[in-house]
Design brief:
177 residues, mainly alpha, 9 helices, 0% strand
């Protein structure tokens, strides 16, 4: 907090008029980042379905991580304190954008239909598909974007072409489900 205060040209105690400490500051940064990412991804997928929605979401997410690597890093490993925590709301917004992509692959509809079914057995078998698909998309997009932001791609192949391969790979996998 002292370094931040110094960079802002204020005394450290002055910061505590606005934040409750380092943890509060980290939560606020993570919430801001998740909301910004949700805005970017959500706006990008509007009007698109299937591979087009997937590509739009993936490109928007990657662009956000590359433009704001520090903010994005703040979102990793931080947990909401409850369902009404602004961090939880921001996280749901981003997940909702990726869930919208899954509708084009009929994965999200399966879970939504099952969620309204009267038998718990149907719900239990459908919802994990959405969870698995979301984890897969997050892992692919997160992994690629964070590696790229760390300048970890050392081979001579074009990075944008590699990212298009990733999108095609994910599209084929989602279609096969």
């Amino acid at each position: 907090m002292g370094l931040l205060a110094e960079q802002l040209g204020v005394r450290t105690p002055s910061l505590y008029k606005h934040v409750d400490g380092q943890e509060d500051l980290n939560r606020r940064i993570a919430t801001l980042a998740l909301n910004e990412a949700a805005d970017a991804v959500g706006g990008a997928v509007q009007g698109h379905t299937g591979r087009d929605a997937l590509a739009a979401a993936a490109h928007a997410f990657r662009a956000f991580v590359l433009a704001h690597p520090g903010r994005y890093a703040a979102t990793i490993g931080i947990e909401p304190t409850g369902p009404h925590d602004p961090l939880a709301t921001a996280s749901r917004r981003l997940l909702d954008s990726f869930t919208a992509v899954l509708r084009g692959y009929e994965i999200a509809e399966t879970a939504e239909t099952a969620a309204t079914a009267e038998t718990a057995a149907i719900t239990e078998t459908a919802e994990p598909h959405v969870d698995h698909a979301l984890r897969t998309l997050r892992s692919l997009c997160h992994g690629f974007a964070t590696l790229q932001s760390a300048d970890a791609f050392q081979r001579s192949a074009d990075i944008d072409e590699s990212f298009d391969w990733l999108i095609t790979f994910a599209d084929h996998g989602l279609r096969a489900m």
